[in-house]
Amino acid sequence: MEKSIFQERTLPPFDASSVQISKEEGLMLYEDLVLGRVFEEKCAEMYYRGKMFGFVHLYTGQEAVSTGVIKAMRPGKDFVSSTYRDHVHALSAGVPPREVMAELFGKATGCSKGRGGSMHLFSAEHNLLGGYAFVAEGIPVATGAAFQSKYRREVMGDESADLVTACFFGDGACNNGQFFECLNMAVLWKLPILYVVENNKWAIGMSHERATSVPEIFKKASAFGMHGVEVDGMDVLAVRSVAQEAIARARAGEGPTLIEALTYRFRGHSLADPDELRSKEEKEFWQARDPIKRFAAFLRDRDLASEEELQQIDKKIQEQVDDALEFSDRSPEPDPSELYRFVFAED
């Protein structure tokens, strides 16, 4: 059998024993990880029951990247730009599960008023710049957000504008022109931004190794003089550590960072994907590194949480997601009279 690319590229080592984390922080991270997983599994159930329509791309397996980066940022102040796999990014950014689920149902109570659906979640209140259906489409938007933060702070003298932007995108976006153009500008202007590549090894059905001449995406940062780093995207503490360092650099005016998180989606590209291209051995390799199970074991080993406490969080999250589902089910559809509303900015 041909050697798997997942055996050839070793996951970056991370010494968790050096991590200093409080019980409160640990439980917060665990809760966010579980929320992402339970929410996505409920989405799968609703999709197959005919409650959701169109394309729905789940994040199951990649939760450590969202939690590790976004929970290291300032909630509601720093900016987050997502992709079409955006549900969990929105949840980590603080968008209520009710509003995310209602949007997936196309309801008026959704965070995008029922107009965006699964791939276009947006929340001005939480500085969620949106999910984007086109590959690499969010990179220029996030770069613009970082530019306005720098401009407000350095040109207009607004000291409250020491804001950082996290821009998420997949390995499939890294051969697109927007990626290279925006990295170049970000370094030239020392923009306060984290470019977070969620390398889950597959761009729909295209293996990452077959699509790019340099598979190690973080190395592409060096072409622009940018700081680049790879991290085990299945380890929330490793991701958080890298993110904290990059955020500190950005806030101090030291410019952008390219973070390549090696991760894996446990389901197909979308819920319409039968997922027949990836081998059983490959899936088992990554499922054995489930980020939630790994972090739960860390919390227990460090005596930061008991099994009972973790189960209580699991129950709490299940109740939240069930509540979001009930809320979405009874929420109204968008009023046809408002068809043209929100096309242009309102006073």
User: What's the architecture in CATH terms?
Assistant: 3-Layer(aba) Sandwich
Number of strands: 7
The poorly predicted ranges are 1-5
Distance between the termini: 62 Å
How would you write the strand order of the largest sheet? Answer: 1-2-3-7-6
The pLDDT mean sits at: 95
Q: For this structure, what is the CATH homologous superfamily? A: Thiamin diphosphate (ThDP)-binding fold, Pyr/PP domains
Using the CA coordinates, give the radius of gyration: 20 Å
Strand residue content: 5-15%
Percent helix among the residues?
Answer: 40-55%
User: SSE order in H/E notation?
Assistant: HHHEHHHEHEEEHEHEHHH
How does the helix and strand content classify structurally?
Answer: alpha/beta
- CATH C-level label: Alpha Beta
Number of domains: 1
CATH topology type: Rossmann fold
Structural summary, described in words:
The protein has a single domain, classed as Rossmann fold, CATH 3.40.50. It is 41% helix and 9% strand. The chain is built from twelve helices and seven strands. The protein has helices at 5-8, 23-48, 63-70, 87-92, 97-104, 138-154, 177-188, 208-211, 236-251, 280-287, 291-301, 307-330, and strands at 79-81, 165-170, 193-199, 202-203, 206-207, 227-232, 257-262. Strands 1-2-3-7-6 form a five-stranded parallel beta sheet, with helices on both faces. Strands 4-5 form a two-stranded antiparallel sheet. Helix 2 (23-48) crosses helix 3, helix 5 packs across helix 12 (307-330) and helix 6 packs parallel to helix 7. The longest helix is centred in the first third of the chain and has 26 residues, at 23-48. It starts with a helix and ends in a 17-residue tail after the last helix.
